[in-house]
Amino acid sequence: MNRFEVTEKIIAAKVSQGLKWADVAARVGQSKEWVTAACLGQMTLTKDQAAVVGEFFGLTEEERQWLTVVPYKGSLPTDIPADPLIYRFHELISVYGTTFKELIHEEFGDGIMSAIDFKMDLSRESDPNGDRVKITMSGKFLPYKIY
Q1: Which of 114, 123, 132, 138 is catalytic?
Q2: CB atoms within 10 A of CB 22
């Protein structure tokens, strides 16, 4: 048993039961974005959160324990993603990454946006020309220290 196998079991249960990530998140008491990332193996759940997720997806006690282990984050099967949706984010960073960097440095100075002290909201935005995906990301600015 390993974390990847638990993730696969969660996905299979979600599909077979017709569950929604928002429903799981409501039970866990955290955002749908964070809970989805946790269920997909990118975040660490507390024992209580793992119990809720485990109940939701019918996980054994051993499988629930895997949810509390710090995962190997940022794991994709290839360096350049093949999945079209994930590839578009790769493309977005390829095209706009230098713009993000330039504008963040101009506004905040030399530093980075944290992906640890971070939150995200994903929602549907109605548009007469076709609905849009709206993603709001907010990360703490971490300046480089002078020492």
Answers
A1: 114
A2: 12
User: What pLDDT digit, counting tens, does each position of 99-121 carry?
Assistant: 999 999 999 999 999 999 999 99
From the list 5, 8, 55, 91, the catalytic residue is 91
Domain 110-147: top CATH class: alpha beta
Q: Which of 5, 75, 88, 94 is catalytic?
A: 88
Neighbours of 3 (CB within 10 A): 16
Pick the CATH number of 3-66 from 2.40.10.340, 1.10.260.40, 3.40.630.30, 3.40.50.11810: 1.10.260.40
39-83, pLDDT tens digit by residue?
999 999 999 999 999 999 999 999 999 999 999 888 777 788 889
Q: Is 114 tagged catalytic?
A: yes
Retrieve residue 54's tokens. 């485990």
pLDDT digits (tens, 9 = 90+) for 119-138: 999 999 999 999 999 999 99
Q: At which residue do the structure tokens 């849009």 appear?
A: 132
- Residue 8 known to be catalytic: no
Q: Is 91 a known active-site residue?
A: yes
